[in-house]
Write a structure and sequence with these properties.
By secondary structure, the chain is α/β, with parallel strands linked by helices. The chain has helices spanning 12-15, 18-30, 38-51, 62-73, 89-97, 115-121, 141-151, 203-213, 235-245, 248-266, 297-306, 333-341, 353-368; strands at residues 55-59, 80-84, 101-105, 126-130, 154-158, 166-167, 170-171, 178-182, 196-200, 272-273, 283-284, 290-294, 342-345. It has two domains: 12-245, Aspartate Aminotransferase, domain 2 (3-Layer(aba) Sandwich), CATH 3.40.640.10; 248-368, Aspartate Aminotransferase, domain 1 (Alpha-Beta Complex). Helix 4 (62-73) packs parallel to helix 5. The longest helix is centred in the last third of the chain and has 19 residues, at 248-266. The protein is globular. It starts with 11 loop residues before the first helix and ends with a helix.
Length: 370
């Protein structure tokens, strides 16, 4: 029997815990505690403990977090920052609007930035590396840290999709000078709108970031110290996120369970290249997305759609260097090949095991046709 399995059911980001969310909204709104109140500082403290980060700052979205981080660095015209070709355009735009030049490089088989390509792209203008912790998987950060140390470069992580993932026991977002995390509704830890987090290292950097998110004003005196912006995670969103953070371990457990089922039944299909399975050595993956590579990708996507299954090709099928109108001219064969085949299957906590097995059956049927 044909099912209807959307790629992501946005209404359920609210309806699944509607009672608790409404109670949170009523509690915060009834006190008029809308902006930068206790709920925000509580959430910042709790997510710092969860990640092991020294300092976390709630901001309006993850793009703002990156732009604030680059403002802290003080990028100058001509400064180059090496990024992954497989990332959201915001990773590059945050660098560009901050005065620098994003330099996309090629990817490894798991879709993450390739360390060899990083080293090959370093010039005398390179000031930083911005690895993307993609799909809930953290890069091999020890190698990237060695490269950065060797060449005197900063690391700022785009960990928008990385919350909860670790590499060698260390959390995404805690390897460099600063990092961003996204709370977009479809993220594993999602808000009821846009939201983001800035992670940074030292007290001085944290104080600077707090000023930059609030018009450049000093938190204690209210004096304007520098140019800033309005990028404050509102208090209702912070309270909802704090509630959902308390259940985050179970959410991750379920996603890893779904990934295990996909891996168990799809790994013997020669036309597919699957993401690494949950038990993958130094990596602890949380599966923000389940992105695989598939032969005849477009036909498979249409076949799944005909059977009621929603899928997505990430970033609209565009790697960063494919935006030629923005001036990118790189030749990155691994990324080109990846984007000819990549497709994401439904991966969320709304999906049942029956739904997962139905998706698998349809994929098997597609590749079994003669």
């Amino acid at each position: 029997m044909k099912k209807s399995i959307p790629f992501y059911e946005y209404p359920r980001a609210y309806t699944d815990d509607k009672k608790e969310v409404l109670e949170i909204i009523d509690n915060v709104a009834s006190r008029g505690a809308f902006i930068m109140q206790k709920e925000l500082t509580d959430f910042e403290s709790n997510i710092s403990k969860f990640t092991g980060a020294k300092h976390c700052l709630g901001v309006a979205n993850a793009t703002d977090a990156l732009e604030i981080a680059w403002s802290m660095v003080g990028l100058k015209k001509g400064d180059e920052v090496i990024i992954s070709a497989h990332t959201m355009l915001a990773t590059a735009s945050a660098i560009k609007v901050s005065g620098g030049e994003p330099i996309p490089v090629d990817i490894s088989p798991d879709g993450l930035i390739d360390p060899v390509s990083i080293e090959n792209a370093i010039t005398d203008r390179t000031v930083a590396i911005c690895p993307t912790q993609l799909n809930g998987r953290t890069c091999k950060m020890d190698i990237i840290q060695e490269i950065a140390k060797k060449h005197g470069l900063l690391i700022i992580e785009d960990a928008a999709q990385g919350l909860g993932s670790t590499y060698k026991g260390k959390s995404a977002g805690t390897f460099g000078f600063a990092a961003c995390i996204s709370f977009y509704p479809a993220k594993i830890l999602g808000s009821l709108g846009d939201g983001g987090l800035l992670i940074t290292d030292s007290v001085d950097d944290f104080d600077t970031a707090k000023r930059l998110r609030d018009h450049g004003r000093d938190e204690i005196t209210g004096d304007v110290k520098e140019w800033g912006r309005n990028s404050r995670l509102d208090n209702i969103q912070a309270a909802v996120l704090d509630f959902r953070l308390s259940k985050y371990d179970e959410v991750i457990r379920r996603r890893r369970e779904v990934a295990s089922i996909y891996d168990q039944y799809l790994s013997n299909i020669n036309e597919l290249i699957l993401p690494p399975p949950p038990d993958n050595g130094d990596h602890f993956d949380v599966y923000q997305n389940y992105e695989m590579q598939a032969e005849n990708r477009d036909d498979l996507k249409q076949f799944l759609n005909e059977h009621g299954i929603g899928t997505l090709v990430q970033w609209g099928g565009m790697a960063i260097h494919h935006f030629k109108q923005l001036g990118f001219q790189q030749n990155l064969p691994n990324a080109d090949s990846f984007f000819e085949k990549c497709i994401m299957l439904p991966m969320n906590n709304f999906i049942s095991n029956d739904d997962v097995h139905y998706i698998i059956e349809v994929i098997v049927k597609f590749y079994s046709r003669k």
